[in-house]
């Protein structure tokens, strides 16, 4: 009963103080909201780029150009035997016409060349994507042993290597930026809370002198921090989800030559994560900010 | 019972604020603490309320050596001692009612009768009309009376008043003193630090006199000086 | 010369803190302002220092209607009036010296002799030993004396003291009062709001008595009450 | 003389208060530094992207494929007459061999195709970049009137248009982001200052009651704000210049297929601009934060 009254008091006091320090409450909420918006926008962009790099990396990494004279049935048999290998993820036969079309589609600004050339310079090919890149060179050697069917085997080791480098760079860079921006976000929010509590240090001192326990003093601050964090993070979540729903499709259509995909699922999870973080940051920040004035 | 044993309090390297002070205040005592400005009265009160630590010596409250208390045990000591602070120490953003109520909540006694007790305490110091005001909207004397009400509302076994009449006119000062005498008669131990010569001389109670941090006189039925 | 003309001050809709107050304080006057707690003494001082605006009526200081002053003209009014505030109003982070020095800087008189004047003022109130301390390291009476030193260091033509002896022991209180008498003799107008019956009765100066915001008595050579 | 003393006092008081509130001073400096680092990193990235888009946009926007049979002297004459036009910025004759080489270089991962094809499918061409895009279509029509020399004229309206769209999007998006992030930066910094001043409102009130003029009260705060802003912005400038000098070249070599260029000049200007902003934000922020407590 006494405990229940205390809890009710703590919650009431938290809202009372939010209401009294309306300007501080408001700026704290806005600060949390905008820092989290910046942070989660960044997370969303990073995730999109990640997916893009993944999609790029999923492209073919071995091409075997087929002899124009090779009998289709033997080619089919070859395709089947290759696709049976455990280390091959995917194998596609690309006809001459398809090759020309692909070129036209993926590199539309060079496509006119085909009209100028008038003949189709592209041979048919077998494109292989490996599940395990280790098997790449052995497979290439194997295919080279069939000169009757296969004209030339190209291993895109260079492309794969470069893509892996770019992707690693992006991942490391992204990771560093996420951690830095996360730290900035935490710092700014904690600092806002710290300064807000600092301006009420006298109040804390008085409560202690009257005989209030640490939790009695701290409770309202922690609840207040949690509520402010919740509201701030909520605003951020709404802004990010709404913004993503609006900007995502536009972006997708504008840069259709890149494999961008809007991940609504990711953004929803991000919103929930943000809310949780908001509550945590707010309450933990208040907890530690008050502790300084409880301990001396 | 409060026992102060050979206590020294030196804030800095210059002269100590309290210099080997020993004294004993029994339950139900009514004691004046006098001494010129800077003699160490407030310092002694702070030590008893464990707001400061003695440099040496020990202090016992109800048999407990409070210099040995752990952090978590300090609140229960402070709830036993009601202090009327010289500078009031009111919560600046809370109304008169809320300030008094807060003390009741702190001791966990803000139950069904809580509001009534708060109102009675405020009524006792004559501030019913100002109950909804905040400290900065009160006169000096009114703030002092809020501090008194907040101290008394919880009915603590020990009341320590630091200059409780400094901002009160003589009549209100007398009323306050009578209030303290009444609660003393009902069993509360009362310690009053004051400069009010008139009150001390008229009441002829026990007077402890501090001078430069030393107890220079401890006399039952004494006057303000000499 | 301070002229208060039919001034009403109502902080809120309940009873006004000052109720049609008129009074005149001439240059070189020495006046006590008495009245019970909440009578309106501090409110009257605040109005003269233009810290609050009267609800109606006007106030003249040296012939200037201060209710008509523009924002930018207020500082020069306040420099003419030295106020010893009831709650001291010391700069919390500044030392005793710095607090006193600040007042001198404000009036633009912190010249070659500045440091000496600061030291003298601190010496006068007997705080030379505490000059490097900050307010929270001082006793109540010491803080009050810093407020007095800060007010006097600039040698203002008008000194208004709000309960300047509330935290002082009788001896120090007397010294303070003598100090105010001395500067009055040298030409300063002095207005003192106080509850100190002993002082008022002994000194037999002009006494203005407020009750519930009204002037109920204005008597040259009066006592604390009636 | 009195004025000089006052100025000396104001500066002394500013440093005194910075020293007294060391923790607040420190967090204000760090807040300003990190917000400005985030902001100027963003500006630098945006500027780099701008230059990249510019460079991409500077590519050829008209190609006239030359008849294999056209006499070189007439082609030379044609090139000269076109380059004389006021609306042509640049004209280049690309031989067949050059065309093949270019293809190999710019699209190295497709270069193997040329080896497979064995013949050189590329015709010689005249590549024109317009100073004024308006003249593009008239020039194309003119060239088409010479079928003896020119086989086919390609206007890369599509590429140009798409590039302009992307570039506009990037510019608008970048602009919006810069403004938002700038607003966030300003908000967070102002708010930090506001809360720091809020905790000293009592001091301000006391100074006023003693008769201090507005400038006497405000001066130390404004100087303090300027100094804190200067130090914070200085840290940010150092971090950005040093970071750019270190990251720039690495990035350039890693994504050499894109026209990235490190602009040390831009970063130096950015650093100076940041410092100026820091001083301005700090002093103006303090000015307005204090004003609230001077006016009531
Ligand atoms: N925090 C502190 N740091 C340093 N010195 C202090 C501190 N607090 C008090 N003092 C000094 O200790 C001495 C005793 O102070 P105390 O407040 O106990 O006096 P007091 O008897 O209450 O005086 P008053 O009647 O003026 O209130 C004073 O000289 C004071 O300056
Ligand atoms: N800011 C305010 N808002 C509302 N009421 C106020 C405000 N300041 C003072 N009052 C009220 O005005 C009345 C007069 O106050 P004032 O401070 O002038 O009294 P005083 O004579 O100085 O009393 P004391 O001797 O206790 O200091 C009091 O009842 C007080 O509650
Ligand atoms: Mg004291
Ligand atoms: Mg008063």
From the structure above, extract its key features.
heterotetramer, A: 296 residues, alpha+beta, 2 domains, four-stranded antiparallel beta sheet, elongated, B: 226 residues, six-stranded mixed beta sheet, 10 strands, binds adenosine-5'-triphosphate, binds magnesium ion
Quick description:
The complex is a heterotetramer, with two copies of chain A (296 residues) and two copies of chain B (226 residues). Chain A has 296 residues and is α+β, with helices and mostly antiparallel strands. Chain A has ten helices and four strands.
Task: Find the structural class of chain A using helix and strand composition.
Answer: alpha+beta
Q: List unreliable stretches of 5+ residues of chain A.
A: none
Domains of chain A (count): 2
Q: Looking across the biggest beta sheet of chain B, what order are the strands in? A: 6-7-8-3-9-10
Q: What order do the helices and strands come in, and which of them pair?
A:
The complex is a heterotetramer, with two copies of chain A (296 residues) and two copies of chain B (226 residues).
Chain A: H1 2-20, H2 22-57, E1 62-66, H3 72-83, E2 88-94, H4 96-106, H5 112-117, E3 125-130, H6 136-144, E4 150-155, H7 157-198, H8 201-210, H9 214-254, H10 264-295
Chain B: E1 2-9, E2 18-25, E3 30-34, H1 41-48, E4 56-61, E5 64-65, H2 74-80, E6 81-84, H3 96-106, H4 114-124, H5 140-152, E7 158-162, H6 170-185, E8 189-193, H7 197-203, E9 206-211, E10 214-219
Parallel strand pairs in B: 3-8, 3-9, 6-7, 7-8
Antiparallel strand pairs in B: 1-2, 1-4, 4-5, 9-10
Helix pairs in contact in B: 3-4, 3-5, 4-5
The complex binds adenosine-5'-triphosphate (2 copies) and magnesium ion (2 copies).
One magnesium ion binds at residues 41-42, 86, 162 of chain B.
């Amino acid at each position: 009963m006494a405990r229940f009254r205390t809890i009710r008091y703590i919650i009431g006091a938290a809202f009372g103080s939010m209401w009294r320090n309306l300007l501080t409450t408001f700026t704290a909420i806005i600060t949390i909201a905008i820092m989290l918006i910046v942070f989660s926008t960044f997370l969303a962009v990073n995730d999109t780029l990640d997916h893009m790099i993944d999609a790029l990396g999923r492209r073919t990494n071995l091409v075997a150009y087929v002899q124009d004279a090779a009998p289709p049935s033997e080619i089919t048999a070859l395709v089947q035997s290759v696709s049976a290998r455990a280390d091959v993820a995917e194998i596609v036969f690309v006809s001459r016409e398809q090759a020309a079309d692909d070129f036209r589609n993926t590199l539309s600004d060079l496509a006119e060349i085909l009209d100028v050339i008038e003949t189709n310079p592209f041979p048919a090919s077998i494109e292989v994507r490996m599940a395990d890149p280790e098997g790449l060179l052995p497979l290439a050697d194997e295919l080279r042993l069939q000169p009757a069917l296969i004209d030339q085997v190209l291993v895109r080791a260079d492309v794969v290597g470069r893509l892996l480098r770019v992707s690693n760079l992006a991942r490391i860079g992204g990771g560093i930026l996420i951690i830095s921006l996360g730290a900035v976000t935490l710092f700014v929010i904690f600092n806002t809370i710290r300064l807000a509590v600092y301006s009420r240090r006298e109040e804390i001192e008085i409560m202690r002198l009257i005989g209030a326990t640490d939790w009695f003093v701290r409770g309202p601050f922690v609840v207040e921090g949690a509520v402010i964090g919740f509201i701030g993070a909520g605003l951020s979540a709404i802004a990010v989800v709404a913004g993503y729903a609006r900007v995502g499709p536009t972006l997708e259509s504008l840069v259709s030559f890149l494999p961008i995909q809007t991940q609504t699922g990711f953004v929803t999870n991000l919103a929930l994560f943000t809310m949780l973080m908001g509550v945590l940051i707010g309450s933990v920040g208040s907890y530690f900010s008050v502790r300084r004035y409880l301990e001396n | 019972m409060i026992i102060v044993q050979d206590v020294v309090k030196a804030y800095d390297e210059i002269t100590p604020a309290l210099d080997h002070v020993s004294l004993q205040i029994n339950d139900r005592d009514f004691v004046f603490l006098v001494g010129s400005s800077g003699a160490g009265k407030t310092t002694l009160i702070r030590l008893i309320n464990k707001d400061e630590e003695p440099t040496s010596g020990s202090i016992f409250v109800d048999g407990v050596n409070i210099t040995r208390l752990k952090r978590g045990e300090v609140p229960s000591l402070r709830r036993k001692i009601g202090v009327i602070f010289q500078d009031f120490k009111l919560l600046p953003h809370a109304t008169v009612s809320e300030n008094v109520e807060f003390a009741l909540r702190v001791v966990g006694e803000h139950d069904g009768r809580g509001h009534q007790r708060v109102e009675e305490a405020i009524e006792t110091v004559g501030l019913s009309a100002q109950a909804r005001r905040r400290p900065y909207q009160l006169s000096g004397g009114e703030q002092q009376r809020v501090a008194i009400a907040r101290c008394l509302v919880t009915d603590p076994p020990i009341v320590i008043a630091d200059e409780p009449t400094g901002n009160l006119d003589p009549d209100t000062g007398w009323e306050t003193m009578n209030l303290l005498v009444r609660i003393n008669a009902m069993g509360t131990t009362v310690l009053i630090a004051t400069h009010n010569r008139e009150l001390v001389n008229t009441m002829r109670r026990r007077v402890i006199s501090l001078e430069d941090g030393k107890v220079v006189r401890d006399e039952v039925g004494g006057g303000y000086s000499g």
